[in-house]
Amino acid sequence: MKQAEIETFLMIVKTKNITKTAENLFLSQPTVSHRLKCLEEELNVKLLTRKKGYKQIELTAQGEEFVPIAERWLSLWQEMQQLQHGREKLYLSIGCTDTMNTTILFELYRNLLNAPASDINMKITTHYSYEIYGLLENHEIDLGFVYHHLHFKNIVAEPLLKEKMYIVQSGDTKLKKGRIHTDELDPAEEIFVSWEANYQIWHDQWVGKGMRPRVQVDTFELLLHLISDARRWFIAPVSVVERIRDLRDVQVSEIANKTQPPERITYKIRHKYPNESTQKAVQLFEEKMMDYLKTKNWGLII
Length: 302
What we know:
This protein is α/β, with parallel strands linked by helices. The chain is 43% helix and 21% strand. It is built from ten helices and 13 strands. The protein has a five-stranded mixed β-sheet with strand order 4-3-5-13-6, sandwiched between helices. A four-stranded mixed β-sheet has the order 8-12-7-11, covered by helices on one side. Strands 1-2 form a two-stranded antiparallel sheet. Strand 9, helix 7 and strand 10 form a beta-alpha-beta unit. Helix 1 (3-15) crosses helix 4. The model has no long low-confidence stretch (mean pLDDT 89).
């Protein structure tokens, strides 16, 4: 088996379409078909089937069984490449959401960089939760942190943090109270962040009441700048609240609604069949991360 054939097969599994596979790999469709044919001939099994009238392809039973084998084969090939290049340091690729990077892990990253003899070379990228699952499934990252628990066959998700939500207003607000009901706030002045699906449901019932927010953002940077206006407010988990309070004068209040918003859960996700070459780096990072999180009051789940 060749590496190109395995990568092509796994891309077909992901896209379920020969045309999209060719586009993603910058190949011609005949090349994709040829690679698949060579792989099937070497294995002496039919991996895929295409029904007439349907653009999407389907895996055969043997194809389903071959997917984890192909992933392990590709992982071993990548490890051999690393061995050939004589890598001595540990390499780790991490995928996170924006607020996970900017409000929770940024200090840990800084500590690791400032360590006298850091053993880990890190590649840190920012994505939406659903994108992180896809990157991890394709072994493009080694470890992920997300706010949505999605069901992927080859991914294990573990709850890491469970954070309480608070109301945040500009420090110039006239409504300075320790506890505030959302009915006391002007929904037209809310800076809305859809933290996760259950929070969205709560918000639609208690705040939005079926109306679309006037402004919705998806980055910490925008929250930081927009909250400068005395009329503005938003709801956020404790880690975001603490970080923004370090950078700007804000009024933080507990939520007085009878039904509280669901706490935001952060999940650590990893692949069922991880690259052996990165396991030491993952373990070392997780140990340092847990030591770091234990110093914070963010609702660590142990």
